[in-house]
Amino acid sequence: MVPTPQKPSHSIITLTVNGEHHSFILGEGPHEVSPSQTLAQTLRERLGLTGTKISCDHGACGSCTVLMDGKAVLSCMLLTVECEGKEITTIEGLGDPATGTIDPLQQSFIDHTAFQCGFCTPGIIMSAKALLTETPSPTRNEVQEALAGNFCRCNSHYHVLDAVMAAVKRGGNQ
């Protein structure tokens, strides 16, 4: 009698975050990722990437926005298991790690005082980055539309719009 092959007791999920490959064992153990864990939780708790914020935890505020395969997504609304094989970019993944320079869009936010407490800023920047990747020269109205899902309680969105438009003029998606 030929033995029946055993299924592995744990599934493994792999994804690339900020250019680095990561594998996670799915399970409920202390060093495993629960199948019910969101991408936001995995980024923050397993990878220590705390730039991705969890605010409303219901997909309403945009603070958890990251890029998945270049598109803006709400990481609190995605299970980590749904991200198998995907390329994830967080706010920590912008800029040039070799030179230590920040992304031109981040610099534009600094130059235009387009942040206050900084809680919502990473999500806003990631939404703007996705827009600039898809549409390198958006109109102000297109920027407003792309950022419509990002909410900030302590800043004027005019500063944010000015920062994004200034980055557009300088070729801010390089």
What does this molecule look like?
- With 174 residues, the chain is an alpha+beta fold.
- The chain is built from 5 helices and 5 strands.
- The protein has helices at residues 39-46, 104-111, 121-134, 140-146, 157-169; strands at 11-17, 20-26, 65-68, 71-74, 87-89.
- A 5-stranded mixed beta sheet has the order 2-1-5-3-4, with helices on one face.
- Strand 3 and strand 4 (71-74) form a beta hairpin.
- Helix 2 crosses helix 5.
- The longest helix has 14 residues, at 121-134.
- It starts with 10 loop residues before the first strand and ends in a 5-residue tail after the last helix.
- Pathway: Alkaloid degradation; nicotine degradation.
- It holds the Pfam family Fer2.
- GO terms for molecular function: 2 iron, 2 sulfur cluster binding; metal ion binding; oxidoreductase activity.
- It comes from Desulfoscipio gibsoniae DSM 7213.
Task: Summarize the entry for a quick read.
The chain is α+β, with helices and mostly antiparallel strands and 174 residues long.
CATH class of the largest domain: Alpha Beta
| Count of spatially separate domains | 2
Any low-confidence stretches, pLDDT <50, length ≥5? none
- CATH homologous superfamily (4th level) name of the largest domain: Beta-grasp domain
Enter the CATH topology name of the largest domain.
Ubiquitin-like (UB roll)
Tally the helices: what do you get?
5
Provide the descriptors you would attach to this structure in a database record.
174 residues, alpha+beta, Ubiquitin-like (UB roll), DNA polymerase, domain 1, 2 domains, 5-stranded mixed sheet, 5 helices, 5 strands, Aerobic-type carbon monoxide dehydrogenase, small subunit CoxS/CutS-like protein
